[in-house]
């Protein structure tokens, strides 16, 4: 098992790194060349700048039972099909039971934006959201915690 992070828009990397270290798990962070990240624990994988370049590289290395952290529901669906566990940065565990609804919501929002309607962005990250995210990450690693 390893923790794989879609790093372009993932907060809390230092806390994720601490948890990965505590459980002695490999941690990979995929990001494009426009972002600069360094950490002594996790490995940064640099991808070309461009649409879906990180996603395409990430999906090549994800294995069954890996934990993928991403807010991209399209990438989430691909990771689920490979047997991995998926966690959204807001703390939502994405699974086979909720992915269809999440993809439909993504499609509907994109359709509205194309027609000129402004849609709301994500809510501000509160301490409760961060704690839920970190708790759910630990639960995915060790469900008997």
Topology at a glance:
Blueprint: E1 2-6, H1 13-22, E2 26-32, E3 43-47, H2 53-61, E4 67-69, H3 73-81, E5 85-87, E6 93-94, H4 99-114, H5 127-141
Helix pairs in contact: 3-4
Coarse morphology: globular
Largest sheet strand order: 3-2-1-4-5-6
- How would a textbook summarize the main sheet? 6 strands, mixed
CATH topology, what is it called? Rossmann fold
- Name the beta content range: 15-25%
Radius of gyration: 15 Å
Question: Would you tell me the structural class of the helices and strands?
Answer: alpha/beta
Q: Can I get a quick summary?
A:
With 145 residues, the chain is an alpha/beta fold. Helix content is 41%, strand content 17%.
Question: Can you characterise this structure?
Answer:
The protein has one domain (2-141): Rossmann fold. Helix content is 41%, strand content 17%. It has five helices and six strands, in the order βαββαβαββαα. It has helices at 13-22, 53-61, 73-81, 99-114, 127-141; strands spanning 2-6, 26-32, 43-47, 67-69, 85-87, 93-94. It is globular, with a radius of gyration of 15 Å. The model has no long low-confidence stretch (mean pLDDT 87).
Keyphrases for this structure?
about 140 residues, single chain, alpha/beta, Rossmann fold, about 15% strand
